[in-house]
Amino acid sequence: MVAAGKAAGVAHASWQDLPLPVRAAVERNIGAKVVRSLRQTPEFDGGLAARLVLEGGNRVFVKALPADNPRVGGYRAEADVMSFLPENAPVPRLMSTVDGEWLALVFSDIEGTSPRLRPGSPELSGVLTALGALSRTLTPCPVPGAPDALEDLGPLLRGWSELSADLPDDLGDWAVRNLESLLALESSWHPWAAGDTLLHNDLRPGNLVVGGPGRVQVVNWRYPARGAAWLDLVSLVPYMLAAGHEPAGVDRLLKRRPVLAGVPAWAVTAYGVALAGHYERVSRLPEPPATSGVRVDQQRLAAVTTAWLKHRTGWR
């Protein structure tokens, strides 16, 4: 669930940078020659992302990493997951995997942009609709052996517990004053995490593609888990807040979502507490490999999520 952030932008590869055997295998697997490559922004430094124009005019999307890139394991996990996702899920179709000097994943064409989640954006409605479709089409969980969400997230979302052992000097006054209450809530969402939905587990604007009015696809399936569908929805809240939503406005949006029916408000608040603690903790760590700007983004997410918690708890 650690957000990947932006590629460091030092060495973005092009289609021609892939070794000839890898390019030949891609063309052989998709049954067409590549006549043009439209470079896109890759997820990670040193990687490739491109839309390929094929003979006949069709297009596909390819992303690739060198076999020795520290992020390549995530691409292998994604390839495994994509092979199980149903055709009616709002996700691109994995067409081919080529594993050699580079690992290349070829998908059905992805044309679009990341959604704007600001208040009043029509794209936000499409995102929420896509999340509803995701929970319906991925229940029951189609991926055998998908990790349990609580086993995956429980050890990760312990930021307040870890920070409390050695409080940072720059921790906000509100968090310091209410630390005992934050610690008490941090794990209380656990009983509500059980479910049989395949969760994306890393929902953020960079993993969503708007291809037109009401058409949103969910991409980059590197950290899936089996659990309750509402966890994916609430994990998007910090990004909505960072886009300019007021806490009360976010709460009004959440009340209308079917996946939260029957989930107590305090459990949602507790998950927000866990997310805020996670962002507070990881924002103080070194930058992850092959990325830049991740920790700055997480500082912003920690601040807006804490503001949301102030609204929901009423704690002084």
Write out the CATH superfamily name of the largest domain: Aminoglycoside phosphotransferase (APH), C-terminal lobe
- The radius of gyration computed from the alpha-carbon positions, rounded to a whole number of angstroms, is 20 Å
| Biggest sheet descriptor | 5 strands, antiparallel
Give the % helix. Answer: 25-40%
Task: Write down the CATH class of the largest domain.
Answer: Alpha Beta
Architecture per CATH nomenclature, i.e. the level-2 architecture of the largest domain: Alpha-Beta Complex
Bulk shape: globular
Structure description:
It is built from 12 helices and 11 strands. By secondary structure, it is of the alpha+beta class. The chain has a 5-stranded antiparallel sheet with strand order 2-3-4-6-5, sandwiched between helices. Helix 11 runs antiparallel to helix 12 (294-313). The chain is globular and about 65 Å long. It starts with 5 loop residues before the first strand and ends with a helix. It holds the Pfam family APH. This is Aminoglycoside phosphotransferase domain-containing protein. InterPro entries: Aminoglycoside_PTrfase, Kinase-like_dom_sf.
